[in-house]
Design goal:
- The complex is a heterodimer.
- Chain A is built from 12 helices and 1 strand; from the N terminus they run αααβααααααααα.
- Chain A is mostly helical.
- Chain A is globular.
- Chain B is mainly alpha-helical.
- In chain B, 71% of the residues lie in helices and 5% in strands.
- The chains are: A mainly alpha, B mainly alpha.
- β1 of chain A pairs parallel with β1 of chain B, so a sheet runs across the interface.
Chain lengths: 325, 112
């Protein structure tokens, strides 16, 4: 029996906090942090003019693209098709936030990690479909590169999430559940090894999935003129930027909650807990940005080789240990 | 809640959010969209029969990159396995069959 106030709470959660609005704001703040940090690491200033420390710059960029810049449309382009998929990608990310305990309305079930993975996959699929719905060689090549990248990175994400939930929700009433893995983790020494290995694999796989340097091969500014995003302008580009950074923010937040224990050593009810989560989130983002600022782009087969050698192997080892533990 | 209900429930929520994002996108876009520059061009030249130009060879799409990455694996598949000779095919299929039998034996008698 589903009550009306429960449905209402679910809709509010998925639309406002920690759903759509929260993810968009977090994503744009994440963009500011990454841009500022990369700027400072490369001896540049980074965003500066809009808001204190340029904090409102990403918001200004998106608002300008939405309301001021015109959108150029041309023959052979499937405008609505790509907008539908990007909207669904955002919807999937917002819904997947309901699996975390920071949401007022939480969904949980035994083996719900499968549903979580299915929702997590949508945003990347949406991105790969952008290229295929624009009639341009650059975007199509970008899309094919992203599809290849997903083929290698997605198993890493799936395996590391399953290995971690397998360990953390052991002996729980709801096995392989995201919520019980995050809130009531059962951790021993062997479990810790699994989590460390999974975290390493997951963190690097985020970079492949979200096309962050050195894995920005589908975008490849200097080679493919922006690849996937080459033909986008105006509101469509704004939507793509929002989706891209929401995905980065979402994946980093999930890594913080699942692998780093969220507010640990405090608990979720604690007032200072959110501060601990924020610090851990920024540390994860710092590591990703440091790698991004330090290396150049690699070729697609080099990326695939790195993923298979270092991430897939590590995550498979984590899964084997998790199943033995 | 069981997994099936959860899948239906979350997919409904996903569609709801997607619909809201899509509608707001369409409302915003209506004011800002333009048809200027609607002719596609490549290297500064307009393309009349643009569909002849825009398509990237199928070898570049997905399988192209995959076969480039898994080149050795691909060569083995093409040159040794998929030779077109019926005997080779029979050997391959028998191998798959026996592998499947062995795996099912292990699953049933050792694991189960």
């Amino acid at each position: 029996m589903v009550y009306i106030h429960e449905v209402l709470l679910a809709v509010i959660s998925v639309l406002i906090y920690p759903g759509l609005i929260f993810l968009i704001v977090l994503g744009l703040l994440t963009q500011w942090f990454m841009r500022k940090l990369v700027g400072r690491l490369q001896n540049r200033i980074g965003p500066k003019y809009v808001g204190p420390l340029g904090l409102a710059q990403p918001f200004a960029d998106v608002i300008k693209l939405m309301f001021v810049k015109e959108e150029l449309s041309f023959k052979g382009r499937l405008d609505k098709f790509l907008a539908i998929f990007m909207a669904l990608g955002l919807g999937a990310l917002a819904t997947a936030m309901l699996f975390t305990p920071i949401s007022p309305y939480v969904v949980k079930a035994p083996y719900d990690v499968i549903v979580f993975i299915y929702l997590m996959f949508w945003a990347t699929v949406a991105f790969s479909l952008i290229g295929l719905s624009l009639s341009n060689p650059y975007t199509i090549v970008g899309s094919s590169r992203l599809l290849t990248q997903i083929l290698f990175a997605e198993p890493v994400i799936v395996i590391s999430v399953i290995a971690t939930t397998l360990v953390l929700s052991r002996n729980s009433e709801t096995p392989l559940s995201m919520y019980s893995s995050i809130v009531n983790p059962r951790l021993d020494m062997l479990g810790l090894v699994v989590i460390v290995l999974s975290l390493i694999a997951f963190l690097l796989a985020i970079m492949v999935k979200a096309m962050i340097k050195p894995f920005d091969i589908p975008e490849a500014e200097t080679e493919l003129a922006g690849g996937l995003l080459a033909e986008l302008s105006g509101p469509t580009l704004a939507l793509a930027i929002i989706l891209h950074y929401s995905e980065i923010a979402f994946l980093t937040l999930i890594a913080t909650l699942l692998f780093l224990g969220g507010p640990y050593p405090l608990s979720y009810g604690d007032y200072l807990g959110s501060l601990v989560i924020t610090v851990k989130y920024l540390v994860m983002l710092f590591i990703i940005t440091l790698i991004r600022a330090s290396v150049g782009r690699i070729r697609i087969e080099q990326a695939a080789s790195i993923v298979v050698k270092y991430m897939l192997t590590v995550s498979v080892v984590a899964l084997i240990i998790a199943s033995l533990a | 809640m069981d997994v099936l209900t959860l899948t239906v429930f979350t997919t409904t929520l996903m569609l709801l959010v997607g619909l809201i994002v899509l509608v707001s996108y369409l409302v915003v876009r209506k004011e800002g969209s333009s048809k200027s520059g609607s002719e596609p061009y490549l290297c500064g030249e307009s393309m009349d029969d643009f569909k002849a130009y825009i398509s990237v060879g199928s070898s570049n799409l997905y399988w192209g990159s995959v076969s480039a990455i898994l080149k050795k694996f691909y060569e083995v598949l093409r040159d040794r396995v998929h030779t077109g000779i019926l005997n080779d095919w029979l050997v391959l299929m028998s191998l798959w069959f026996f592998t499947a039998v062995i795996i099912s034996f292990i699953v049933v008698f050792v694991g189960g």
